[in-house]
Design a protein that fits this description.
Layout: H1 2-43, H2 51-65, H3 68-76, H4 80-104, H5 108-134, H6 138-165, H7 172-192, H8 198-206
């Protein structure tokens, strides 16, 4: 009986932490994507052409971060064999995608975009597997998987919108782009975080 209660409590805590992390991560990554061009152009001008590829990789890593806490939960539940199998599948699919794209379009941006697609695939399979532990109904499992990636997708879309709509050299473009990004994302973040208890989560995390 106590084991069932503890497992239910852990499940609630994991879901809350996962949701909180998925909402907060796009803020830092989105701003980093916007500022990557000016910062690298100023400090490492020889690598300026690598910025678009770096932005793609950052977007992929952001999508992957949505599966971080669920993957730890699977390990804690003794599902390491399942996690290993999914990891091998995702890695093989990612390798096939990256090498396939590199063979036909050997440009850094194309390869980085392919790698980001592999990150997204890995996130999807881990989230789908974790959903089977969190929920009983297939529809709720599917909704959990898609909703978990919602903040990342919104953050990526807004960051790219800011980059495309407000281009230009210097520091004005990233400042304005950052304001645009935050104006678009923060209301979404507040809406997605409603009922989550972010203050309680932060207090518990800092203890």
């Amino acid at each position: 009986h106590h084991g069932a209660i503890d497992r239910a409590r852990v499940r609630v805590d994991v879901l809350r932490a996962q949701r909180g992390m998925s909402i907060l991560m796009p803020i830092g990554v989105g701003l980093a994507m916007i500022w990557a061009g000016p910062v690298i152009g100023s400090l490492l001008p020889a690598y300026r052409e690598a910025v678009p590829a770096l932005q793609w990789l950052a977007a992929g890593a952001l999508a992957l971060s949505a599966a971080t806490i669920p993957s730890y939960f699977l390990l804690g539940c003794g599902r390491q064999n399942s996690l290993l199998g999914l990891g091998v599948f995702a890695a093989a699919a990612n390798a096939a995608l990256v090498f396939g794209v590199a063979a036909h379009h050997p440009e850094p941006v194309a390869v980085a975009a392919a790698a980001s697609g592999g990150y997204l695939l890995f996130a999807l399979v881990i989230l789908a597997r974790a959903a089977a532990e969190f929920h009983d109904r297939a529809a709720i499992r599917a909704a959990f998987t898609l909703v978990s990636l919602g903040p990342a997708c919104a953050g990526i879309a807004l960051a790219y919108a800011a980059i495309r709509l407000i281009p230009g050299p210097g520091w004005v473009a990233p400042v304005v782009g950052s304001a645009m990004f935050l104006a678009g994302y923060l209301p979404l973040a507040l809406a997605m975080a409603r009922g989550l208890g972010m203050r309680t989560l932060m207090r518990d995390t800092l203890k």
